[in-house]
Amino acid sequence: MNAAITLTELFGVMRRCTGGEHAVELTEDSADISYADLGYDSLALLEIGSQLELRYDMSMAQDAIPRDGTPRQTLDHVNRLRQAAV
C-alpha cells in the first residue's frame, strides 16, 4: 500500500522546483489558494508534476496541475492516483 503524500511533502517539492526562493510562504492556508495567486507559472507546475512523478514513481497527465488549481487539489489527485495503483 502506498502511503499518502502529505501537504508538507508537496510543499517541499514546490519549494525545490522554485529553488527555494519563492516569495510566498507556504502554510496550511496556502493549500487552498490557486497556483496562479501563489505566483506559480505553467513551467513551474510542469516541473512540480515531473518531480512528483519521479519521487513517487507514478504518472500524471501534463495538465493535471492547472494554474487555477490549488495545492490541496493536487495533493488529493496525487493520493487518488497512488491509491488506485495499489
Q: In the CATH hierarchy, what is the class? A: Mainly Alpha
As residue ranges, the low-confidence spans are none
Radius of gyration from the alpha-carbon trace, in angstroms = 12 Å
Structural class of the secondary elements? mainly alpha
CATH architecture: Orthogonal Bundle
Quaternary structure classification: single chain
Q: What is the 3D form?
A: globular
Please, how many domains? 1
SSE order: HHHH
Main pleated-sheet profile: none
Q: What brief labels describe this structure?
A:
86 residues; mainly alpha; Non-ribosomal Peptide Synthetase Peptidyl Carrier Protein, Chain A
In brief, what are we looking at here?
With 86 residues, the protein is mainly α. It has a single domain (7-84), classed as Non-ribosomal Peptide Synthetase Peptidyl Carrier Protein, Chain A, CATH 1.10.1200.10.
Structure in words:
This protein is mostly helical and 86 residues long. It contains 4 helices and no strands. The chain has helices at residues 7-17, 35-38, 42-56, 71-84. α1 packs across α3. The chain is globular and about 35 Å long. Keywords: Phosphopantetheine, Phosphoprotein. This is Actinorhodin polyketide synthase acyl carrier protein.
Write the SSE topology.
Layout: H1 7-17, H2 35-38, H3 42-56, H4 71-84
Helix pairs in contact: 1-3
Organism: Wenjunlia tyrosinilytica
Keywords: Phosphopantetheine, Phosphoprotein
Protein name: Actinorhodin polyketide synthase acyl carrier protein
